[in-house]
């Protein structure tokens, strides 16, 4: 498993928590940052998946 997949998943979870906290507190900036972190985490996870697939294809 590529480290990008692990970091991406962690970033996605962090974003989810941050977004929820922003909603609860009524902080639109924190909510937006959470959404951005979630999106970045999903992208990073996808990149890691592509790296894994390429590595497996070469074996």
Automatic annotation (TrEMBL):
**What top-level branch of life does the organism fall under?**
Bacteria
InterPro entries from the xrefs? CsbD, UPF0337_stress_rsp, YjbJ_sf
Q: Which residues form the CsbD-like domain?
A: 4-56
PANTHER family from the UniProt entry: UPF0337 PROTEIN YJBJ
Q: Which family does it belong to?
A: Belongs to the UPF0337 (CsbD) family.
Record's protein name: CsbD family protein
Q: Source organism lineage?
A: Bacteria, Pseudomonadati, Pseudomonadota, Alphaproteobacteria, Rhodospirillales
């Amino acid at each position: 498993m590529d480290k990008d997949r692990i970091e991406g998943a962690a970033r996605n979870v962090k974003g989810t928590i941050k977004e929820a906290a922003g909603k609860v507190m009524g902080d639109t900036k924190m909510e937006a940052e959470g959404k951005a972190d979630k999106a970045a985490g999903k992208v990073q996870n996808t990149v890691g998946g592509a790296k894994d697939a390429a590595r497996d294809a070469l074996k």
